[in-house]
Design brief:
With 509 residues, the protein is of the alpha/beta class. It has 21 helices and 8 strands. The structure holds NADP nicotinamide-adenine-dinucleotide phosphate.
């Protein structure tokens, strides 16, 4: 709860500030801005801060890393800065000379806006500043140690301790390093929330003049989430990474069993040297293709659900919702595996074992050393299609970068992610089919009765591609298109879509 705007008298220095905000002489900017100690003494209220919005006196409590970086940034942006410390003499040398380092009480008295740059466990030591901070804006920059599911947040606790001040939560997502380098590097976003819109807009103004972009997160209750944000460890990547690792483990063990264990068990042949490169290299494309199929599978499934329901207004289950929102991460994991596969493949001839194989084959002679048109064509096609697939995947990966996707309109984005994405899936599937060639019909490929890996890998991509093909059948596509425009099976409203013949609306599945 914020203090009444007229609770307290105006500060003695206020008139100087009011005059100074419109045109501030250059000399004035350079002069040590805070003269004497705590001139007016009495706390100013929020109205005063708002009227001084262009150049409020900014206080910082604490002299740690965050405080020092913030002070530098504020001074560079032309603000008067007064830092409150328990031991001002010890800390003064750490701050730019334009900033005044004084006692906590003096800083609280002088400042209009006060950044609380101390750890939350020490907030209780600040209670004696309550009077001095009444009616002022307190910015809570603290971060927690653990993700909290519910409040109170540190900012809410601070607001409880200082009921007569206006608490704004913010800057906790910005590191001391980002503050020092300015907004040139690092994240430029500062998330802010407060129950006082006036206080929030003043802090927003402060953000902007420091070169940051402020994002209004709503009331102070949002501070629980704002405090959690720096603590999350790749939340949207967890499932895609687990899926990638699980698939890698599965296919690696499968390939190991077939290609390394089988020759050892059946004929005592030790090919364990294949484990670091060969086995990894046949595992990576398998993972990549399955992940790519998983990118497009939920879209196709969602389209079929909508066709079955005859409406788009039924909610998808939570798992499908989450799957749909993780497609970008799955796609990037797929790209990473494909890229690694390409690098491993290029390095294959460098290995000693590969050279020995060539010498041995040449020495032995026989069909392996003779020109075989079928094998030559197969390899040429296999490599060419693989390069195409990797090229398309690279394009998708680049287009998913926010700086690139922000410059694409919806049609361009969906063209790249859908049409080119499906083209990549087709190319990667062809790459695998050409690799398999006739191996599915060769008996000795079924080692330990396990089918060749490519047969397992092809299941999901084929299902997705066939599903997608089914959605392009004109009557199905048209029905889906109507549903996506709001038509519902149960409601008998007839309408015709403009350009009904176009199938474009289903491309985004
Ligand atoms: P720090 O380097 O440890 O500084 C904390 C400061 O708090 C001390 O220098 C001390 O200054 C002051 N303080 C006041 N009362 C205290 C007490 N009773 N006991 C101990 N210290 C007391 O910490 P920091 O990295 O600047 O972080 C400060 C706040 O900013 C934390 O809440 C943190 O979560 C937040 N934050 C930090 C960063 C970052 O990159 N560092 C980023 C975002 C948010 P005096 O001795 O001069 O009084």
């Amino acid at each position: 709860m914020c203090a009444s705007p007229h609770q307290e008298g105006a500060h003695g220095r206020k008139s100087r500030w009011m005059a100074g905000t419109s045109v501030m002489p250059h000399g004035e900017m350079k002069r040590p801005l805070i003269e004497g100690g705590g001139g007016g003494g009495a706390s100013r209220h929020l109205e005063a801060s708002m009227s001084d919005a262009d150049c409020p006196v900014v206080g910082i409590l604490g002299t740690g890393d965050f405080s020092r970086s913030l002070a530098r940034r504020l001074v560079a942006s032309g603000y008067q800065v007064v830092v409150g410390s328990r031991t001002p003499k010890r800390s003064v040398a750490l701050f730019p000379e334009e900033a005044e380092v004084t006692s906590q009480m003096e800083a609280a008295n002088q400042a209009d806006v006060v950044f609380v740059a101390v750890y939350p466990e020490h907030y209780s030591t600040l209670v004696e500043l309550r009077q001095a901070l009444a009616g002022k804006i307190l910015v809570d920059v603290s971060n927690g140690m653990h993700v909290k599911q519910e409040g109170p947040s540190h900012a809410q606790q601070l607001a409880e301790q200082f009921p007569e001040s206006c608490v704004v939560k913010g800057f906790n997502t910005v590191s001391a390093w980002t503050l020092q380098t300015g907004a040139r590097d690092g994240s430029r976003q500062v998330l802010l929330c407060s129950d006082s819109s006036k206080a929030k807009s003043l802090v927003m103004q402060l953000c902007r003049s420091m070169g940051f972009i402020s994002v209004d997160m709503g009331p102070l209750s949002a501070s629980v989430e704002v405090e959690n944000l720096p603590l999350y460890l790749f939340p949207s990547w967890r499932v895609p990474i687990i899926a990638t690792l699980a698939l890698f483990l599965f296919f690696y063990l499968y390939n190991f069993t077939r290609d390394v264990l089988h020759p050892f068990v059946k004929s005592g042949k030790s090919v364990f040297y294949k484990m670091p490169i060969d086995t990894v290299n046949v595992t990576l494309p398998s993972v990549s293709l399955v992940l790519l199929a998983l990118v497009y599978m939920p879209g196709v499934y969602a389209a079929f659900l909508q066709l079955m329901w005859g409406t788009k207004y039924n909610r998808f289950s939570d798992w499908l919702d989450r799957w749909l929102t993780r497609r970008k991460q799955l796609g990037l994991c797929s790209f990473l595996c494909a890229l690694l596969h390409a690098i491993y493949s290029l390095c294959l001839p460098m290995r000693k074992s590969a050279r020995y194989d060539i010498y041995a084959a040449a020495k032995k002679g026989g069909p392996e050393t003779e020109w075989n048109d079928e094998k030559v064509w197969r390899m040429e096609l296999y490599v060419s299609v693989g390069i195409m697939a990797l090229g398309l995947l690279s394009l998708l990966a680049v287009a998913s970068l926010p700086s690139v996707s922000n410059n694409l309109n919806w049609r361009e984005f969906s063209f790249i992610q859908s049409r080119l994405g499906y083209s990549a899936l087709i190319m990667a599937t062809l790459h695998t089919l050409i690799f398999g060639w006739n191996r599915a019909f060769v008996a000795d490929q079924y080692r330990f009765l396990l089918p060749p890996t490519f047969m397992l890998v092809l299941v999901l991509p084929c299902v997705v591609l066939l599903g997608r093909l089914a959605l392009t059948v004109p009557c199905v596509a048209q029905r889906l298109r109507r549903i996506r425009r709001g038509w519902e099976k149960g409601r008998h409203i007839r309408f015709t879509l403009p350009g009904d013949q176009s199938l474009e609306d289903i491309t985004n599945v």
